[in-house]
Amino acid sequence: MDANGNVVRVLANDKKNTLPQTGETDENTSIIGAALVAAGSMFGLGMAARKRKED
User: Fold this and answer.
1) How far apart are the C-alpha atoms of 40 and 33, rounded to whole Å?
2) Cα gap 54→35, rounded to integer Å
3) Number of other residues whose CB lies within 10 A of the CB of residue 29
4) Cβ-contact 41, 35 below 8 angstroms
5) Average pLDDT, the chain
6) Is there a contact between 8 and 1 (Cβ–Cβ < 8 Å)?
7) HEC states along 7-42?
8) Closest by alpha carbon to 42, among 34, 31, 32, 30?
9) Around 47, how many Cα atoms within 13 Å sit in the side-chain half-sphere?
10) Alpha-carbon distance 16 to 41, whole Å?
11) What is the DSSP letter of 44?
C-alpha cells in the first residue's frame, strides 16, 4: 500500500519462467556402469553353470 492507502501491485521477476539449473549433465557413467554389471553377472552365471555341469 502506498501513502494514500491504495494497493500497489508488485510485478514478479521474469526469472520465474525459467527452469532451475539442477546440475544434470549428459554423462555416460551410468550406461558404462550398467554394462559392467551386466557383463559381470553373465560371467558369474556362466561360471555357476560350468561348475554345475562338472559336479
Assistant:
1) 10
2) 29
3) 8
4) no
5) 77
6) yes
7) CCCCCCCHHHHCCCCCCCCCCCHHHHHHHHHHHHHH
8) 34
9) 6
10) 47
11) H
Q: Which three cell numbers stand for residue 1?
A: 500500500
Residue type, position 55, single letter: D
Fill in the DSSP letter of residue 4.
T
pTM for the structure as a whole? 0.42
Distance CA 41, CA 49 (A): 12
End-to-end CA distance of the chain: 88
Q: pLDDT tens digits for 9-28?
A: 766 665 567 777 777 666 77
C-alpha 42/C-alpha 47 separation (Å) is 9
Residue 49 CA to residue 14 CA, distance in Å, equals 63
Residue type, 4: N
